[in-house]
C-alpha cells in the first residue's frame, strides 16, 4: 500500500498562468452558453457546477506527483478498457453505445480513455530508450489502436479520433521515426474506403452532406448550412452577445453543445474567434512548455500529449463548425455544454499542473 | 510488465530531452500553422463572404406576412345591411405540432363531427401549406362545437379554435342573384386577381355584386415584417403596413320593394326588374327561385349542392340577368315608335285590322289574337288593344334592317352594361345574323312576326326594363347601376355613382314618342286596354304593356288553349310598366315563367312593386 502513495505530501502549487487561461476560457464559455441556451440560467448553473467539480478534480490531481500517476497508469488503463468493453455489451444511449450507467452517474468510458491512452503509451515508453525502435513503436501503436477500435464500433468517430490522436501525439513526441509517421499516414489514407464500409448510415450521411450540403438544405445539410450562415453573418465584430439571430432563433442545431462555436462566432465575430484561438494556443503552448520543463520521460510525454490533444479538440470542432470537416461529435473544449468532457479536460489540465509543480522532483 | 527486473538499456536523458524539445517545437509550429489556417477559414466566411451570409441570416429570420383587410359591407339604399362580416370560429391545425395528424383528425371527428368532405378538403389544403403553418380544418363552428373542443383542448396539440370574420347574407335567397356570394379562394380565382394582394385572404367574390366589385370590397392587403424562429413561429412584429379595408357599397336596391316583388311572385318561377328612370339605378331585381348563399360561404357540401341542382326551375340560374325570353307584345311600343319615327306610318294614320294579315303571294294569313279584327286603329289604339295586324303592317313597312337598326338603339340584342357579371345579351335578329347562324336568307314572314316580338327575338328581363327606361326618358339610354354609392374607408360620406349614358336615341318627332307613351297609358287606363285591372284603386297613373312569350310554336291553324298544355310548356307571362305616367319614377319588367297571361299573372306583380316604391315615396 505504501508503494502506491509514495511522496504523497507535496506543496499544492498551482500553475497560475494555466489556471488564469482556464478560468478565462470557462467563464467566457458560460457566457456563451447562457446566450446559446436561450438565456437558460438553470442550464448555465448546472454547467457551472460541473466545471466547479472539474476544477476541484483538477486541484486534487495537481497534488498527485507524476510518478504516482505513472504507477496508477496500467490500472487506470485496464479499468478503462474493461469499462469500454462493458459499454460495448451493456451500453445505453441514442442508437450508440457510449454511456455506462453507474446508478448515480452516467459517464462515457471513452472519455476516460482520452486520458488513459496517452498515459499508458507514456508509461510504456518511460523506461525505454528513445527514440523508440520499430518494436516499441508497434507496441505503442497497439496500445492506442485497441481502445480506438472499440470506440469506433460504438460508433463514435470523433472520440475515436481524439483517443488515437492523443496516443499518436505521445509517440510523435517520443521521437518515433518520420518514416513510420509517413507509412501510417499513407496507410490510413489508403484505408479510408475501408472506414467508409464500416461506417453507420448516419455517419455516411454526415459525410455526404458535408461534401454537398445544398443537396438537402432543410434536412441533412441543415446543420452545416445554418452553422456557416451563423459564422459568416457574424462578420468582423459579431452581432453582440445575446444578439445572434441564428442562435437566438434556434436556427443552429446543437447550439449549446457541439456547435457552440458557431454561436460564439456569430455573436463575437472574427475578432472573437481569433482571441479564442489565441487563448487556446496559449494554453497549448503553456502545456508544451510544461512538458519541456518536465524532468522525466513519462511526465514529458504525457504533458506534451495532453497539450496537443487539446489542439485536436479545437481543430476538429473549429473545422466542423466552419464546414471544413463533416459533423463529428467533438465538443469545443471547456466551452461546450456537457459534464464528462469538461471534467476530463480539467483533469488533464490538473495533470499538467501536477507535472509543472513537480518538475524538480526526479525519481 | 513494467516492473522491469531485467537490466535496462541505458537511457540518454540529455539526448531524449533534446529530441523531445525538437519534436515539441515542430508540433507547436504545426499547431500555430493549423490555427492560422483555421483563422483564415473564419476570415473567408466572416469577412470575404460576410454579405452573402448576412443576407441569408436575415432571410432566415425575417418573414413578410400579409395582413388581411376587412371586406367592405353592402347596404341597400335605405341603409339596411345586405352583406356583413360576422365573427365566427374555425378550427385550425399545425401538423408539425400535432404529430400524428390522422389520429388527431379521427379524434376531432368523434368530438365535433368532422365530415368526410371536410377531412378530404383539409388534406387537399395541406399540400399548399408548410408543416409549421396553421391549416383550417373546419369552418364556422357553432357554440356547442367550440365548447366541446375547449373542454377537450388538452388532448390536442397544435389544434386551436381561431376567430375570424365570416361573410353573412341576412336576406338569404331573396338577394342571392343580386349580391352573389363569396367563397374560399381557389386557383381559378387567383388567376384573375393580383396574387400578392390575396396571400392572406380566405374569401373572394364568386358571382354577383360580390364578384363585380371584388377589387373594391376586398381592400388592399397589408404587410407585416415579422421575426420568426427556425420553426416558423412568429416572435415579434418588426414593421407593419396596415391594410386598407374594402369599400362599403350602397346599393340602389330597396329591400322593401324587393320583398314586395319576391312575395307577390309567390312560389312561381320568374323575374322582376325595377329601374329608376331618372338615374338608371336598380330598385329591385328578383330572380326566383333563389338559394341560400350562406351555404356557399363555408364551402357547400356535395349533398347540399345536389339538392339545389335537383330543385325544379334551376335556382342557380339568374333569370333577371341572363334569362332569354321571347318579348312578344312587350316589343310593340318599340316597333310602333320605329314606324312613326321612320315615317312608315303617321301618328293619326289608321290601319284596318280584319283579324288576318296576308303577305303578297302567300295563301296563309297571319292571325290577330282577335279573330274578327279591331277595325280601323291608330298607334294609340293599336297599343291599347295590342293589335297584331297593325304591327305586322308596320314591320313589313319598316323591313328587318330598319327594325334591327332602330331597336338596337334601345339596347336589344346586347348586354345593358349593368354592374353585375354574367349578363345575357338576348338576341335582336338581322339578315347578317341569320346568314351566319343558319346559312339562310331572311324571309319576309320572319319580318312580320318580328313586329309582334316573336320569331327569333330574345330579351332578358333587365334589357326589357332598360329599353322601357330609354323610352320614357325620351331616348336617353343608360347602363343600369346597382351600386348607388361607394363609401371609401374613413370617409364620412359615400360617393354617388352615376349610371353612365350609353346612347341618346335621336328624337325626330316628340309627338311620336308621346303617342307611344299615351298608347301604353291606354293599355292600363283605356276602355279597351289589355291590362285594365292593374289600375284599380291606384293613386297614380300607370302605363304599361302586356306580353306573352311562346314556349311552343303553334302551327298557324292551331289554337292555344292554356288548360290543355302542360305547365312547363305554357306561355311566359310578361308585363312592362312605368309610373306615374306624367313623371315616371319607376319602370318595372315582370316575367312569370309559364305564367300564361301577361295581364292576369304578371301585371299584379308589377302593381305590387309600383305600390311598394311609389307608396313609400308618398310617405316621405
Fold and architecture overview:
The complex is a heterodimer of chains A (363) and B (620). Chain A is mainly alpha-helical and 363 residues long. In chain A, 69% of the residues lie in helices and 1% in strands. Chain A has 13 helices and 2 strands, in the order H-H-H-E-E-H-H-H-H-H-H-H-H-H-H. Chain A has a two-stranded antiparallel sheet with strand order 1-2. The model of chain A has no long low-confidence stretch (mean pLDDT 85). Chain B is of the alpha+beta class and 620 residues long. Helix content of chain B is 38%, strand content 20%. In chain B, a hairpin with a 5-residue loop joins strand 2 and strand 3 (81-93). In chain B, helix 15 (332-341) packs antiparallel against helix 21 and helix 17 packs across helix 19. The relative contact order of chain B is 0.10. Chains A and B meet through helix 6, helix 9, helix 11 and helix 12 of A and helix 1 and helix 2 of B.
Please summarize what this structure is:
The complex is a heterodimer of chains A (363) and B (620). By secondary structure, chain A is mostly helical. Chain A is built from 13 helices and two strands, in the order H-H-H-E-E-H-H-H-H-H-H-H-H-H-H.
Radius of gyration of chain A: 20 Å
* Widest beta sheet: strand line-up of chain A: 1-2
- Whole-number mean pLDDT of chain A: 85
List low-pLDDT spans of chain A: none
Q: What is the distance, rounded to the nearest whole angstrom, between the alpha carbons of the first and last residues of chain B?
A: 122 Å
Strand content of chain A: under 5%
Protein structure class of chain A:
mainly alpha
Oligomer: heterodimer
Shape of chain A: globular
Termini distance of chain A? 18 Å
Reading the helices and strands of chain A in chain order gives HHHEEHHHHHHHHHH
The number of helical elements of chain A comes to 13
Sequence stretches where pLDDT stays below 50 over 5 or more residues of chain B: none
Question: DSSP helix count of chain B?
Answer: 22
- Give the fraction of residues assigned to helices of chain B: 25-40%
Extended strand count of chain A: 2
Largest sheet of chain A: 2 strands, antiparallel
Name the chain pair whose interface involves the most residues. A-B, 55 and 45 residues
Structural class of chain B: alpha+beta
Radius of gyration of chain B: 38 Å
Amino acid at each position: 500500500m505504501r508503494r502506491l502513495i509514495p511522496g504523497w505530501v507535496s506543496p499544492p502549487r498551482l500553475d497560475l498562468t494555466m489556471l488564469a487561461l482556464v478560468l478565462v476560457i470557462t467563464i467566457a464559455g458560460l457566457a456563451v452558453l447562457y446566450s446559446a441556451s436561450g438565456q437558460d440560467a438553470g442550464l448555465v448553473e448546472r454547467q457551472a457546477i460541473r466545471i466547479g467539480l472539474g476544477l476541484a478534480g483538477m486541484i486534487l490531481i495537481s497534488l498527485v506527483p507524476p510518478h504516482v500517476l505513472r504507477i496508477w497508469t496500467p490500472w487506470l488503463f485496464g479499468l478503462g478498457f474493461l469499462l469500454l468493453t462493458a459499454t460495448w455489451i451493456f451500453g445505453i444511449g441514442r442508437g450508440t453505445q457510449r454511456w455506462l450507467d453507474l446508478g448515480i452517474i452516467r459517464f462515457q468510458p471513452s472519455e476516460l480513455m482520452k486520458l488513459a491512452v496517452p498515459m499508458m503509451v507514456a508509461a510504456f515508453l518511460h523506461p525505454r530508450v528513445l527514440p523508440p525502435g520499430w518494436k516499441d513503436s508497434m507496441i505503442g501503436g497497439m496500445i492506442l489502436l485497441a481502445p480506438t477500435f472499440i470506440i469506433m464500433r460504438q460508433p463514435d468517430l470523433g472520440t475515436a479520433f481524439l483517443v488515437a490522436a492523443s496516443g499518436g501525439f505521445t509517440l510523435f513526441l517520443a521521437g518515433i521515426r518520420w518514416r513510420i509517421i509517413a507509412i501510417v499516414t499513407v496507410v490510413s489514407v489508403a484505408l479510408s474506403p475501408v472506414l467508409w464500409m464500416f461506417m453507420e448510415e448516419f455517419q455516411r450521411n454526415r459525410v455526404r452532406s458535408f461534401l454537398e450540403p445544398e443537396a438537402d438544405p432543410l434536412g441533412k445539410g441543415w446543420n452545416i448550412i445554418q452553422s456557416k450562415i451563423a459564422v459568416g453573418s457574424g462578420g468582423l465584430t459579431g452581432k453582440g452577445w445575446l444578439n445572434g439571430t441564428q442562435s437566438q432563433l434556434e436556427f443552429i442545431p446543437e447550439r449549446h453543445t457541439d456547435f457552440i462555436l458557431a454561436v460564439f462566432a456569430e455573436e463575437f465575430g472574427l475578432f472573437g474567434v481569433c482571441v479564442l484561438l489565441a487563448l487556446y494556443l496559449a494554453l497549448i503552448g503553456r502545456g508544451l512548455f510544461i512538458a519541456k520543463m518536465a524532468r522525466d520521460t513519462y511526465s514529458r510525454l504525457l504533458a506534451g500529449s495532453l497539450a496537443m490533444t487539446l489542439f485536436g479538440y479545437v481543430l476538429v470542432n473549429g473545422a466542423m463548425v466552419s464546414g471544413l470537416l463533416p459533423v463529428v461529435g467533438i465538443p469545443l473544449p471547456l466551452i461546450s455544454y456537457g459534464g464528462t468532457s469538461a471534467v476530463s479536460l480539467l483533469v488533464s489540465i490538473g495533470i499538467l499542473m501536477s507535472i509543472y509543480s513537480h518538475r524538480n522532483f526526479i525519481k | 510488465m513494467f516492473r522491469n527486473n531485467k537490466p535496462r538499456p541505458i537511457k540518454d536523458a540529455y539526448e531524449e530531452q533534446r529530441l523531445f524539445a525538437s519534436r515539441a517545437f515542430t508540433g507547436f509550429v504545426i499547431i500555430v500553422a493549423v490555427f492560422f489556417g483555421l483563422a483564415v477559414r473564419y476570415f473567408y466566411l466572416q469577412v470575404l463572404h460576410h454579405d452573402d451570409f448576412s443576407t441569408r441570416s436575415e432571410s432566415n429570420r425575417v418573414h413578410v406576412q400579409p395582413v388581411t383587410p376587412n371586406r367592405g359591407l353592402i347596404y341597400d339604399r335605405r341603409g339596411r345591411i345586405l352583406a356583413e362580416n360576422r365573427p365566427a370560429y374555425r378550427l385550425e391545425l399545425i401538423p408539425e405540432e400535432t404529430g400524428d395528424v390522422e389520429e388527431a383528425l379521427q379524434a376531432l371527428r368523434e368530438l365535433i363531427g368532422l365530415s368526410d368532405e371536410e377531412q378530404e378538403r383539409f388534406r387537399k389544403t395541406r399540400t399548399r401549406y408548410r408543416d409549421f403553418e396553421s391549416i383550417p380544418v373546419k369552418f364556422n363552428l357553432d357554440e356547442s362545437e367550440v365548447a366541446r373542443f375547449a373542454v377537450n383542448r388538452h388532448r390536442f396539440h397544435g389544434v386551436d379554435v381561431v376567430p375570424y370574420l365570416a361573410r353573412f347574407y341576412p336576406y338569404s335567397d331573396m338577394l342571392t342573384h343580386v349580391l352573389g356570394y363569396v367563397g374560399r379562394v381557389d386557383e381559378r380565382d387567383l388567376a384573375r386577381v393580383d396574387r400578392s394582394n390575396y396571400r392572406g385572404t380566405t374569401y373572394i367574390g364568386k358571382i354577383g355584386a360580390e364578384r363585380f366589385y371584388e377589387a373594391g370590397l376586398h381592400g388592399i392587403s397589408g404587410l407585416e415584417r415579422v421575426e420568426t424562429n427556425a420553426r416558423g413561429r412568429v416572435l415579434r412584429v418588426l414593421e407593419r403596413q396596415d391594410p386598407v379595408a374594402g369599400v362599403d357599397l350602397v346599393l340602389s336596391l330597396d329591400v322593401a320593394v324587393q320583398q314586395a316583388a319576391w312575395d307577390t311572385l309567390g312560389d312561381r318561377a320568374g323575374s322582376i326588374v325595377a329601374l329608376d328612370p331618372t338615374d338608371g339605378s336598380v330598385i329591385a331585381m328578383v330572380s326566383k327561385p333563389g338559394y341560400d348563399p350562406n351555404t356557399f360561404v363555408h364551402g357547400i357540401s356535395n349533398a347540399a349542392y345536389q339538392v339545389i341542382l335537383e330543385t325544379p326551375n334551376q335556382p342557380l340560374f339568374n333569370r333577371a340577368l341572363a334569362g332569354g325570353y321571347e318579348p312578344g307584345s312587350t316589343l310593340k311600343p318599340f316597333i310602333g315608335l320605329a314606324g312613326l319615327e321612320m315615317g312608315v306610318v303617321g301618328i293619326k294614320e289608321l290601319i284596318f285590322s280584319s283579324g288576318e294579315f296576308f303577305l303578297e303571294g302567300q295563301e296563309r294569313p297571319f292571325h290577330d289574337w282577335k279573330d274578327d279584327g279591331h277595325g280601323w286603329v291608330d298607334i294609340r289604339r293599336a297599343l291599347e288593344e295590342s293589335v297584331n295586324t297593325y304591327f305586322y303592317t308596320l314591320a313589313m313597312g319598316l323591313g328587318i334592317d330598319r327594325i334591327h337598326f332602330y331597336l338596337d338603339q334601345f339596347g336589344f340584342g346586347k348586354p345593358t352594361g349593368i354592374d353585375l357579371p354574367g349578363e345575357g345579351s338576348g338576341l335582336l335578329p338581322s339578315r347578317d345574323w341569320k346568314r351566319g347562324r343558319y346559312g339562310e336568307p331572311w324571309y319576309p314572314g320572319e319580318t312580320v312576326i318580328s313586329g309582334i316580338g316573336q320569331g327569333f327575338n330574345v330579351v332578358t328581363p333587365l334589357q326589357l326594363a332598360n329599353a322601357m327606361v330609354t323610352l320614357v326618358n325620351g331616348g336617353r339610354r343608360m347602363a343600369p347601376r346597382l351600386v348607388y354609392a361607394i363609401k371609401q374607408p374613413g370617409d364620412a360620406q359615400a360617393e354617388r355613382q352615376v349610371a353612365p349614358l350609353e346612347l341618346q336615341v335621336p328624337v325626330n318627332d316628340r309627338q311620336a314618342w308621346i303617342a307611344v307613351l299615351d298608347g301604353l297609358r291606354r293599355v292600363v287606363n283605356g276602355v279597351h286596354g289589355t291590362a285594365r285591372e292593374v289600375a284599380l284603386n291606384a293613386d297614380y297613373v300607370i302605363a304599361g304593356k302586356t306580353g306573352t312569350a311562346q314556349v311552343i310554336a303553334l302551327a298557324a291553324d292551331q289554337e292555344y288553349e292554356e288548360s290543355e298544355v302542360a305547365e312547363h310548356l305554357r306561355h311566359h307571362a310578361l308585363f312592362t310598366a312605368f309610373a306615374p305616367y306624367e313623371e315616371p319614377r319607376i319602370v318595372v319588367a315582370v316575367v312569370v315563367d309559364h305564367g300564361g297571361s301577361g295581364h292576369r299573372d304578371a301585371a299584379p306583380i308589377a302593381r305590387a312593386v309600383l305600390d311598394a316604391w311609389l307608396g313609400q315615396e308618398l310617405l316621405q
